[in-house]
From TrEMBL:
Location of the Ketopantoate reductase N-terminal domain: 12-157
Enzyme class label: oxidoreductase
Protein name (database record): 2-dehydropantoate 2-reductase
InterPro entries the UniProt entry points to: 6-PGluconate_DH-like_C_sf, 6PGD_dom2, ApbA, Ketopantoate_reductase, KPA_reductase, KPR_N, NAD(P)-bd_dom_sf
Pfam families on file: ApbA, ApbA_C
Reactions listed under catalytic activity: (R)-pantoate + NADP(+) = 2-dehydropantoate + NADPH + H(+)
Function: Catalyzes the NADPH-dependent reduction of ketopantoate into pantoic acid.
Residue ranges annotated for the Ketopantoate reductase C-terminal domain, each copy included: 186-304
EC annotation from Swiss-Prot or TrEMBL: 1.1.1.169
Record pathway: Cofactor biosynthesis; (R)-pantothenate biosynthesis; (R)-pantoate from 3-methyl-2-oxobutanoate: step 2/2
Gene3D superfamilies in the cross-refs: N-(1-d-carboxylethyl)-l-norvaline Dehydrogenase, domain 2 (1.10.1040.10), NAD(P)-binding Rossmann-like Domain (3.40.50.720)
SUPFAM superfamilies reported in the protein's UniProt record: 6-phosphogluconate dehydrogenase C-terminal domain-like, NAD(P)-binding Rossmann-fold domains
GO biological process, one term: pantothenate biosynthetic process
Length: 306
């Protein structure tokens, strides 16, 4: 399989997990050039075509070239789709190699990571986003698009404001992607849903739809109250009832799906609990707000991960 071309494609994608593989496939199918940046340890390994199953069930073999950190200088746009806990370490080898003008786009669950990336790349345009697309990873370089969702991108720093075109180009591949100058609000909305759905499904090993049953009613209600308290302290006009409705709607719309945290636990991988509930706990502590149900879930998932 080819490595990087002399004329690099528009997108360099870092992180070929379930969602990264699906995004790479959709971008490729939309006619936009994509390359996958992989670890140096994979230089001598076979890099097969991506086996991609679309929403309509059709299968496609896509030849997407790979590249390495040493190719960072030819990157035009860097789309980072690793798990939250892997973002900083994945980007560290690019320090001093990635051009200062190159926009870095972070698409991961949770919050609190962009601040650390900004410290590593203080001059680069930095963008953050949220997406609700569903994805599953099968075997090696095998991906399935399991659900069409919404994607929102916005600036994390001032330099990022100049790159609204990125949302338009993503929309060509995803069907919908929009620019939002107030992206932190959408990040918090996504965080709240993740705080309510992911730990419960991972701890009790149930699919999302199970959360709509009476078994989880009290826990979800308490979680929504705690989340509303913290989000209000952060300056957002939300209510516990509103957060509960959103979480239940997502659970019902994705009833047959396994949350990413459940998938990680079942595969024996580390979860994103630190960037999701861990971030909430940090902000709650900052504001002096008690969040006992979120804390108990955090401790339970963290212990089981260990």
């Amino acid at each position: 399989m080819p490595r990087c071309n002399m004329l690099p494609p528009l997108w360099t994608l870092l992180g070929a997990g379930a969602l990264g593989g699906v995004f790479a496939s959709l971008l490729t199918q939309s006619g936009q050039g994509v390359r996958l940046m992989v670890r140096d340890t994979q230089r001598s390994r076979l890099h097969p075509a991506i086996d991609f199953t679309a929403l309509d069930g059709t299968a496609h073999l896509l030849a997407i070239p790979r590249c390495f950190a040493s190719d960072a200088a030819t990157t035009k746009r860097l789309l980072v789709m690793t798990k939250a806990g892997q973002v900083v370490e994945a980007l560290r080898p690019l320090q001093g190699l990635l051009g200062r003008e190159v926009p870095i786009v972070l698409l991961h669950n949770g919050m609190g990571i962009a601040e650390r990336v900004a410290a590593l790349f203080p001059d680069n345009p930095l963008l953050v986003g949220v997406t609700s697309h569903g994805a599953m990873r099968g075997g090696h370089y095998t991906f399935r698009h399991t659900g069409k969702g919404e994607t929102w991108i916005g600036p994390f720093n001032e330099a990022g404001r100049e790159h609204a075109q990125i949302a338009l180009d993503l929309a060509k591949a995803l069907g919908q992607a929009e620019w939002d100058e107030q992206i932190p609000v959408r990040q918090w909305q996504k965080l709240a849903i993740n705080c309510m759905i992911n730990p419960l499904t991972a701890l009790y090993r149930v699919k999302n739809g199970e959360l709509s049953t009476p078994r989880f009613s009290d826990a979800l209600t308490q979680l929504s109250v705690e989340l509303a308290d913290v989000m209000q302290a952060e300056g957002m006009a939300v209510t516990a009832d509103e957060l509960l409705r959103r979480a239940l709607t997502v659970a019902e719309l994705t009833a047959d799906n396994s949350s990413s945290m459940l998938q990680d636990r079942e595969a024996g991988r580390s979860t994103e609990i630190e960037a999701i509930t861990g971030y909430l706990l940090a902000r709650a502590e900052h504001h002096g707000i008690a969040v006992p149900v979120n804390r108990s879930l955090f401790e339970a998932i963290s212990q089981k991960a260990g």
